[in-house]
Structure formats: C-alpha cells, structure tokens
Amino acid sequence: MVHTFSAYDPDWELAERMLQMERYAWLSLTHDMGTVLSIDGRFDDVNTQWEAVTGYDECELLGSYLVEFMHFDDRERALADWQSLITADVSTTSVAFRFLCKDGEYKRLSWNLMYSPEHECFFCTVKDVNESLSDMAIQYAYKDVLTGLGNRLFLMDAVPAWIEEAHRGGAQLAVCFLDLDGFKLVNDTYGHKVGDLLLKKVAEKLTRSVPRDCVVRLGGDEFVIVLRDVASREAVTHLLQELMQSINTAVCIEGQDCSVGVSVGVGMFPEDGASLEELVQVADEAMYDVKREGKNDFAFRRKLSKENAA
Q1: Among this protein's residues, is 221 annotated catalytic?
Q2: Could you give the CA distance from residue 206 to residue 105 in angstroms, rounded to a whole number?
Q3: From 3.40.190.10, 3.40.1010.10, 3.40.50.2300, 3.30.70.270, which CATH number describes the 152-309 domain?
Q4: Residue in 45, 144, 221, 272 annotated catalytic
Q5: Secondary-structure class of domain 12-142 per CATH
Q6: Local mean pLDDT, 10-residue blocks, the chain (310 residues)
Q7: Cβ-based burial of 135 (10 A; exposed 0-12, middle 13-18, buried ≥19)
C-alpha cells in the first residue's frame, strides 16, 4: 500500500497572533519606554510610556521612521551602531542620541537594542537620560546591556571631564580603540549565544588589567579603553601587550574552544588631540592601519608601532 501525505500547510494566521501576543507581553512588562521596530526602522509597536516622555501617543508613532526623530548630528553614528546588530552578528547593543519630542525640544534617550532574526525586528527598551530620577536609573542608562560595561553614552559624558582633569594636572591620557579579529567566524560557526558569551569573556579579560569604569563597549565587537594618568607611550605599550596576550588566549564556551584576535589603535592626550572626538578619531584611524597591515596588533598615530614606541 502506498501512503500519500498532504503537504503541510502552516497556519500563518495563528503564527501572527502568537507573535502579537509575544510583543504585547514584552511591551507590558517593561517599566521603561518599549518599542518594536521593523528591520527598516519603522515603529511597529510601542507601549504607553512614550506619551509621558516624548508627548507622542501610540497613533502618532506607529508607522513613522525612527530616523525622522533623530537629531541630524547624531544620525550617522547612531545608525552605524544600529546596523552593527546585523553586520557584526551580535544580538545586543546600546546607543544614545537626541530624540525630537512633540514640543519641538530634543531629549537624549538611551536605547538598549536586541535584534531578533526570527521576528525580523528590533526589540528596544528606552530611557530618558535627562529625567532619570534615581542613581539606579542613571546607572542603567550608562550600562551596556550584555557585558555590564559602560556604553557609548558613558564614554561621551565621563571622558571629557577626565580629559579636563588631565589638562589641569599636566597629565597624559590614552584612548584605545579595540576591534576584535575573527569574531564573525566564531558567531557564524557556533551561533549568537556563544558569540555573546565570548564578548562577556573579553570584557572580563579587559577589566582584569584596567579599572572597570575605564572600559566601554561601543557596540558589536568594538571596545574603548581609556587609560588615565599614563606615564608614557612605553607604559601604554606594555599594558596593551599584556591585554593582547590575554585576549588571544582561547576560552572554552559550551564545550567549544573559541579564539579571537584584536586590533588596537591609540590616541594620546594632549599630543594627538584635546577632545574626546579628536582622540577617538585618531585611535580609530590607527586601528584601521593595523587592520590593513595584517590585524591582531596595535598602533599609535602615524603607524608608530610598538617596536618604535619602545
């Protein structure tokens, strides 16, 4: 006897109802502003907290593009961080930018983002930095959701004061821009969960040698280390050599040996710049010099290598 089987016909209407229930539960449980954004950046769903903070009710936000509310000067950086959730194969990141409210004023909002490939959307929790009423809320706004390190908002708010302090005291300060080498391969081979756990391991390694409040995760597989009151380039060189050796050491995650390298660029205050923006730009350019020359190394400005620095 030959058995025949009818083709499986999924109940797409039921699947859609389940997805909507999942979104509703998530949005209802968060105490902060919550939203679900489509992959092209449209507001697909929001909770009721948005109206109290921004003045917009649900009907005014749904279907609108987030970029329409971003301050023009913040757009390029914020969108690049957003895109890293897809291109860098990480599942979470943090970003902060000025958001245009209904009264015409801008408020700086801190976003914790999670990209869901299954739903093809972003789940976001959002906090108004200007109106944070407690120390706990402020700490939340400054923290990277995955690693617990400081985020870009913390970098932007804290480091200018450190630079000013170094200026008054005649001290040097180093801004080190780190980008992991080979992280995408680990993610593609073992999946996002292992990739996220590896990022946490890297964060732990960095904070063994550097004070925790001096280490920032920008998003994706990018980190910044700020070294305060450094004696010389040689001191920076010595520390980076130790950090690279630690990061290059493989770690076992869920039974898999995972290893990555790291490319590092360094900007020195006051030699390379007087502001955070200038120092980050110098460090970023030096890091890309390392990438072009073979990766897994570090460089100061003008391709000054560790041998020359020493």
Answers
A1: yes
A2: 39
A3: 3.30.70.270
A4: 221
A5: alpha beta
A6: 40 45 63 87 89 89 94 88 70 84 91 80 84 57 84 90 94 96 91 89 94 91 95 95 95 91 96 95 95 95 53
A7: exposed
